[in-house]
Amino acid sequence: MGQAFSRLAQVIALLRERCAWTAALTHEALLEYLLEEAYEVIEAVETGHTRAEDAAELSGELGDVLLQVLLHARLQEETGNFSILDVVEGLTAKMVRRNPHVFHPDGTLAESTTGDPAEIERAWDAAKKVEKPRRGSPFEGIPVSLPALALAAKTQNRARRAGVAVPAAETGSGASYGAAVPGWDGEKELGDLLFETVRQATERGIDPEAALRGAIRRFTAAASPMTD
User: Fold this and answer.
1) Does pLDDT of 74 surpass 90?
2) CA 148 to chain centre
3) This protein's superkingdom (predicted)?
């Protein structure tokens, strides 16, 4: 695999040198492709391309994401900052460091491990705190450019892992983070509820994405003092 990966990195370098279109790429220009390719991976998984007979589709989409990583790394290598090797070595070290239930600090396998997901999460979070001690809030580092639903889910997950309460939706119109929410059971009903919420919002001229982002900001502003 090492030889194949090295050949791929070489092909990318040659394209940067000899292909005018590839040579003109910048980090900023690549961002739309990175986002698009990531969504195509999601679509391939959601449409069942993990099955053996369809897995070639997912393999191709993963290759397109890898291409984006290699191009960004190559741009940095050309400026002398870092190379794809630094990316790989950094990721390897991070995976060892953040998974002490599997690895010793030197990368050798631990004699025993744990099957407790909560314990694994605590070890991961502890390692992150050592890496980034200046972070004073569990919400720091969450990309605010995430789509609102993904941002809400990530924010709430971070809050729970930090022991910060996530208030349930209130039943009155004066709710801080939401209004009355009808009961639902299962993914299909939840999807229908979200779709209907968006329909009502757009009919009233309200941007649902902006509305949810506002709710997230209110929650994090209220919760942050609790984490000091």
Assistant:
1) yes
2) 13
3) Bacteria
- pLDDT for the residue numbered 170: 61
| Residue 6 near residue 30, CB atoms below 8 Å | no
What pLDDT was estimated at residue 227? 45
Cα(143)–Cα(106) distance, rounded to whole angstroms? Answer: 31
Structural tokens at position 209: 């994405």
Backbone dihedral angles phi then psi of residue 49, each to the nearest 5 degrees: -85, 20
Tens digits of residue pLDDT in 200-210: 999 999 999 99
Positive or negative: CA dihedral 205, 182, 165, 134 = negative
Are the C-beta atoms of 26 and 75 separated by less than 8 Å?
yes
Average pLDDT over residues 121-131: 86
- Check residue 173 and give its pLDDT: 47
Q: What's the token pair of residue 4?
A: 């194949």
All domains of the chain in start order, with CATH: 2-96 (1.10.287.1080), 98-131 (no CATH), 148-163+182-227 (no CATH)
Question: What's the mean pLDDT in 111-139?
Answer: 85
- Using the structure block, give the residue that is written with the tokens 């979200």: 194
**From residue 227, how far is each of 31, 108, 157, 164, 211 by CA, in Å?**
33, 35, 15, 7, 25
CA atoms within 13 A on the CB side of 161: 20
Kindly report the average pLDDT of the chain as a whole number. Answer: 89
Token pair recorded at residue 228: 């000091």
CA angle in degrees (0–180, nearest 5) for 68-69-75: 90
CA end-to-end span of the chain: 46
